[in-house]
Structure formats: structure tokens, C-alpha cells
Amino acid sequence: MVDVTIRGAGIFGLSIAWECLQRGASVQVIDPYGVASGASGGLVGALAPHVPENWNSKKAFQFESLMMADSFWTSVQAASGLSAGYARLGRVQPLPENAALDLALARGENARQLWQGQAGWHVLNERPSWAPDSASGYWIFDDLSARINPHAACLALAEALRGLGASISTEGDDQGRVLWASGVHDLARISGARNRSFGGAVKGQAALLQVDRAEHPQVFAEALHFVPHEDGTLAIGSTSERDFSAATSTDAQLEALLNKAYAIFPALAGAPVVARWAGLRPRSRSRAPVLGRHPLISEAFIANGGFKIGFGMAPKIAQVMADLMLLEQDHIPEAFRPEASF
């Protein structure tokens, strides 16, 4: 008999399993498709904050989680002997027009307070060592953003879990406290049972280029993420598609994304494309993560709706869900509760 059963071996399920294991619970993880088979097996891995303004519980939660990331991934890597590809190297954004300069400077002032002196938002008038052109002659650099290799991070978590006695399998019976972290499959099940949308799938496509910028910050330009990974590759993504016919196939939209990326960084045009990826990301109706008691299954719990921010939110989500499941202590923000997506 185990204490905790996690249904889903993506970033939420594995992170919560890790936190429960650290607190002395015995854990099993069950996923019929295997580790990181869905959205958590993507390429991009941009752990980036929301802009420091109009502060709310979602932004505060994300900030706390990003600040927890270093110790979280250090412990996973030490236990597994595998790299998660984590590094907090910051993010560069070209400022598209001079009219946005005052707002960028105001956000820098906001960051001093909201980020509690632990990270900064800086406006630069000198071009960073690796950055696209800026029409205004200014660039924003925040040193809160970090990168991670999504698939490698999940494999490291899985290995760390196994090393400390947890089981990960494709089938099994529920035992102990049960948490569902099964992404788009569970959102569809809940929506069907309620006869209205609780959330759904948004397709994303991304590419991986053989370009070594491993020591440089990531770049965000014209709604595209350029994320250098430690293995000498560069991830570019991603599309956001509400309507699609093939969930896991790349198509002309990815080629259009790459052409846009080449226009932003012309030097990338000749680089080999070593991987293309497409998958479905779970987005709740509220657009926030869904945490708490499962809306359909009595006595079960849910962690879902990671969408684009799942890896950045995972350390804090693991903490609050372990508090709820193991200690019956509820620290979940109201905006994250299932009721927010009803």
C-alpha cells in the first residue's frame, strides 16, 4: 500500500510526486503513455515571469515558484545524476518603439518592489551580446527568467523518484491519496461531464536548431521565444492553435514560425533544424492552473492547466498540493481553484 498515487507523468505529476516523497510519503506514478509523453515533452523551456505590473495572486505565485526553481532543480539533479538543463541566465527583449520606453522604465521601478530585490527588470541602451535588432535602440533585460530542457527535466525527475523508491508505471490501481495530473485528457473528461467547457487543448509547435548560445540569455521577440539549451541547441517556439486537425503533426504553421524567426535573427537561417515538435497543451477555462479537490472524483485531487507556464509554476504547485494532500493545509489561491473554471 502506498500513500500517494499520481495519475500523470508530466511536469505537474512528477513534481508533486517528488515533493510528497521528500516529505516521507510513499508514492506511485501511473501514466499509460509514459513519462513526458504530452505537453511536458516539448522543446522550448522558457521559465519567464509575467510583467511586473497589475500584481495579482497568479503573478505572485509564479514569482515565488521561479525563486524556488534553483533549489528545486538542484535537488532533483543531485538525486538523479541527470541534468534538467536548468540555468537562470535571464531574458532579453527588444523594445519595438520609443513610445514604449516610459512603460518599460515604469516596470523596472515596479520590479524593485514586487520582485523584492531578488531580481531586476532593466532597460538597456547598449545592445546585449546576443540580441536581435531593436527599432527603438533599447532592450529589456530581466534576470529572473530561466531556461530548462523540458524532456530532460522530466527524465531527471523520474530517475530521482525511482532512486528514492517511487514506482512509475503505465498501469496500476489507485492507492492512498489520489491526484490526477493528466492534462488535456482530464480537462476533456470534466468538460464532457459538465456539458460545458472546463478547459481544453491548445496545440503548440516548436523547433530545435543546432545553434550553440548556451551561455546567453533567452530572447523574446515578436511573440517568439528563443531559448538556448546547454547541449548546444536553440529552441524556438511556439504556435498557439485552438483549431487543428492533427494533434502531434507539424505543418506549415511551424515553417511560418521558422521563417519569422529567421527574419528576426537572419544568422539562424542556415542552421540545421534537428527536431520539430507538436503537441497539445492543457489550458483551463480560467487560464490559470487548476489545483485542489477534483471536481468529478470524490476524495481525489487535481493539478492541471499548466499551458505555457507549467514548468515555471511546478515547484510552488508541488509545495501547495503536498500541503493539501498530506497535511490538509490549503494554501491554494482562489484563482487557481476548480471553481474558477466552472
Care to describe what's here?
The protein is of the alpha/beta class. It folds into 3 domains: 4-88 and 144-198 and 285-341, 3-Layer(bba) Sandwich (FAD/NAD(P)-binding domain); 91-141, no CATH class; 201-281, D-Amino Acid Oxidase, subunit A, domain 2 (D-Amino Acid Oxidase, Chain A, domain 2). The protein has helices spanning 11-22, 57-80, 101-114, 150-163, 184-194, 252-264, 310-327; strands spanning 4-7, 27-30, 46-47, 91-94, 121-124, 139-142, 146-147, 167-169, 177-180, 199-209, 218-221, 224-228, 234-237, 273-284, 290-293, 300-304. The strands form 3 sheets. An 8-stranded mixed beta sheet has the order 5-6-4-11-12-13-10-14, sandwiched between helices. The relative contact order is 0.20.
Fraction in beta strands: 15-25%
Structural class: alpha/beta
Shape: globular
- The name of the CATH superfamily of the largest domain reads FAD/NAD(P)-binding domain
Structural domain tally: 3
Radius of gyration: 20 Å
User: Which CATH class of the largest domain is shown?
Assistant: Alpha Beta
CATH fold topology of the largest domain? FAD/NAD(P)-binding domain
Mean pLDDT: 97
* SSE string, helices as H and strands as E: EHEEHEHEEEHEEHEEEEHEEEH
Low-confidence stretches: none
The largest pleated sheet is described as: 8 strands, mixed
Q: What proportion of the residues is helical, as a percent range?
A: 25-40%
What is the CATH architecture annotation of the largest domain? 3-Layer(bba) Sandwich
How many distinct helices? 7
Strand arrangement in the largest pleated sheet: 5-6-4-11-12-13-10-14
Q: Give the termini separation.
A: 34 Å
